[in-house]
Amino acid sequence: MSDGTIGTPGQLRDPNYTPPIAKAVPLGIQHVLAMFVSNVTPAIIVCGAAGFGYGSDSPDFPQMIYMIQMSMFFAGIATLIQTIGIGPAGARLPIVQGTSFAFIPIMIPLVAGKGVEAIAVLMGGVFVGGLFHAFLGLFIGRFRFALPPLVTGLVVTMIGLALVQVGIQYAAGGVPAIGTDEYGSGLNWLMAGTVILVTLGLKFFARGMLSVSAVLVGLLVGYALAYVLGEVSFGNVATAEPFALPSPLHFGLEFSVAAVIGFCLMSFVSAIETVGDVSGITKGGAGREATDKEIQGATYADGIGTAVSGLFGALPNTSFSQNVGLIAMTGVMSRHVVTIGAIFLILCGLVPKVGAVVSSVPIEVLGGGVIVMFGMVVAAGISMLSDVTWNRRNMVIFAIALSLGLGLQLEPGALQYLPETLKVLATSGILPAALIAIILNLALPVDLTDESTEEVSGGMTGRGAGSFAGEERN
């Protein structure tokens, strides 16, 4: 969009340009709306997995409100580091930071059913992983060779596949309802299905901000339906404080080998994702490649934002890809527009009543939105895999990494004799899949012959392997 009322084409491509305030404020809030649901959802999922999520009668329920609050506050702080910069940290580009979905499959095994006490171990992992992420900024350019689309696409796909079960569970009524008559009821699926249908309708038939915020609008419609059906309670909104500051070491800080290793390894993947987002912003908004300084600054900001988040009870931060698409759509490259959005997020994070309103959304309604979001993560991974040359070598790498990674995730009992630390890391599915793909990609010869692959596919019968082998040779 090249709108003369916002600026000239040259100004719109300039990150340092500030549009008129009457235009800049709604553009900044638009960025927040595009990422809001994705930003607070990981906190809800992690708290629910730990056992103090949904169920306002629990004495620990306010802890989820606090984590939602911190998700907004530190997404705003991390975004300011990116747009304004602190020394070498920050790309000085319109990069929106938010809570990362990528770490959820690592976090859930660490806290599953362990209550609020388990969050201290999580925060230790977030803090160390953030420092490691910032350290990667020194070398990130040199690592890119080890993560071609085959590896990154597999990892993103695995993240989505690891999360889709959560979406279905939420839509059916949540983990506490499993085994009861309420689980999977028609009422639950009515609320979740409404969110999905509204989201799809807006995504395909609406334009502009309605299309960009389709998930958010779908959740609002589902929320309204749930209210009409008597499924919404505002008790927590009334009791929530009108204003509260972040609390240092709110959940404590403990360090475990599994958490530290898991977060550090996933930080490596997150850093590469940020490199892609920075490149997407400069190419889509300014028509140029990202500089090494911008990539390095963005990686520093990712890590510092994550480390600070861990000290105050928030989850890992990363750049948000949906906002990259928003910049390409609006054509406004101004980092100051995103700064306005960051300030809005910080203000929301200082008002616990906002977190309480978010927590009042029925889990079935959230499930409808989560199904769409996690499905889009899988789709994004498959889209990345479309850039792969599907020769026999890459097929073997993908097949083995996916089979072992997804298989261990689905059947964690197969690793019952492993030490607890290794078991947590392996059953995440993502880490073993990523490590296997990276190692095989670096170790296997590029010119893997048809004959050497026949041994792998030799056990397959019927049309499966034979016809595919024939097509490969043609």
Lateral strand order in the biggest sheet: 1-2
What's the β-strand tally? 2
Which stretches of 5+ consecutive residues score pLDDT under 50? 451-474
- H/E element order: HHHEHHHHHHHHHHEHHHHHHHHH
Walk me through the structure.
- With 474 residues, this protein is mainly alpha-helical.
- It folds into 2 domains: 9-153 and 233-361, no CATH class; 389-449, no CATH class.
- 68% of the residues lie in helices and 1% in strands.
- A two-stranded antiparallel sheet has the order 1-2.
- Helix 3 packs antiparallel against helix 13 and helix 7 runs antiparallel to helix 17.
- The model is unreliable at 451-474 (pLDDT under 50).
Topology overview:
Elements: H1 9-12, H2 21-50, H3 61-83, E1 97-99, H4 104-111, H5 119-136, H6 140-143, H7 149-172, H8 186-205, H9 208-212, H10 214-228, H11 235-239, H12 257-286, H13 292-312, E2 317-319, H14 321-330, H15 335-349, H16 352-359, H17 363-385, H18 392-410, H19 420-426, H20 430-443, H21 450-457, H22 463-473
Antiparallel strand pairs: 1-2
Helix pairs in contact: 2-3, 2-4, 2-15, 3-13, 3-15, 3-16, 5-12, 5-13, 7-17, 7-18, 7-20, 8-10, 8-17, 10-17, 12-13, 12-14, 12-19, 18-20
Keywords, please?
mainly alpha; 2 domains; two-stranded antiparallel ribbon; 22 helices; 2 strands; 68% helix; globular; disordered C terminus
Short description:
This protein is an all-alpha fold. It is 68% helix and 1% strand.
